[in-house]
Amino acid sequence: MNPSRPLPSAGGPPAIGVLALQGDVREHLIALAAADAVARPVRRPEELAEVDGLVIPGGESTTISKLAELFGLMEPLRERIAAGLPVYGTCAGLIMLADKILDPRSGQETFGGIDMIVRRNAFGRQNESFEAGVAVTGIEDGPVEGVFIRAPWVESVGAQVEVLAEHGGHIVAVRQGNVLATSFHPELTGDHRIHGLFVDMVRAAS
Predict the structure, then answer these.
(1) Which of 12, 14, 39, 137 has CB 3.0 to 4.6 Å from 202, enough for a Cys bridge?
(2) Which pTM was predicted?
(3) Where are the beta strands (DSSP E) in 120-169?
């Protein structure tokens, strides 16, 4: 966290950014605001320095990787994640938070942060997208509705990673310390419970 900026007041809304390079940025901004955060887009290193947490949205992981390099965000993001910045990634965001991708495209890099191996597009192509109820550890009042769009899954995790949810025998939600990731898109459903969980993580870290 930027030491020159005051910490959010106890119980006050934290400032949470959404990486606004590509993907469903607007939907995450809406979900974060509904979960009592001050939500703002992040495109430059100086904007990253002003947030208490960050969401990496779905989209194309290869495009996000290239644009992060182009906008000078790759190394600053890696450094802040390593320093404990709370981050939540959905779909392509999950891929970007993986320490290893099974089938990376040429030149594709990740931010890292979770000791896991992921498989891109594991649940199928665009026309095989689906919705399903997913029981997530730490989320009360029943399963969340998960939207799976060319979704990855997690092949394996390290000892420090907590598996929060599975679907069809595959891992679809994980957490390691301050880093949370889901294969699916809760921001597309109107159910803001996972965003609420992440906001709580940011509050605790702040």
Answers:
(1) 14
(2) 0.91
(3) 130-134, 144-148, 153-157, 162-167
